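Quick start: what a row looks like.
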Amino acid sequence: MTRLELELVFAPDGHLRDEALVALGDGQTEIVPSEALSHLEGCSTCEARLGEQALWSLEARAALELVAAERAGARFPWLVVTLAAAVALAGLVPALPEVMALPALLTHGLPVLLKALGAALRHAPSDTSLLGVWVAVTVMATLLAVVLSRIAPRHIAWRGTDR
């Protein structure tokens, strides 16, 4: 393993540089030259700075472990997604009697629903736990589109000029 060069270890005033103190504070004594270790044994200034550096290293390590623990504990917000889906479904309820007539649903809604499901499955997330949510949201969005298409006027007259 390569050791730190002496220019990186000693400052012009003869004390250890931050690079050497960081390596020692992190426990990487194998990369620090033996001259630096000898200096450290007899220099109270460098010894105090090493203590500070070791504390900073411990604090940084503890902070990184805390962040890693928070990320590991982060879960998918099932409650929020469920509530959003319930609100979306509640928005469909008033128009469902018009749309749910079986012949109209089979002739108009089912092909649209199947196309939407096919598109959803092609672009579904790789995480299988989200697949059910993905499909449910797609079905609700498709039903909403069918409802809107059934409520909208059937014929919109062109009011432009004839050429």
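That is the whole record. The chain has a mean pLDDT of 75. Helices lie at 6-9, 18-25, 34-42, 44-73, 78-92, 96-99, 102-122, 131-151.
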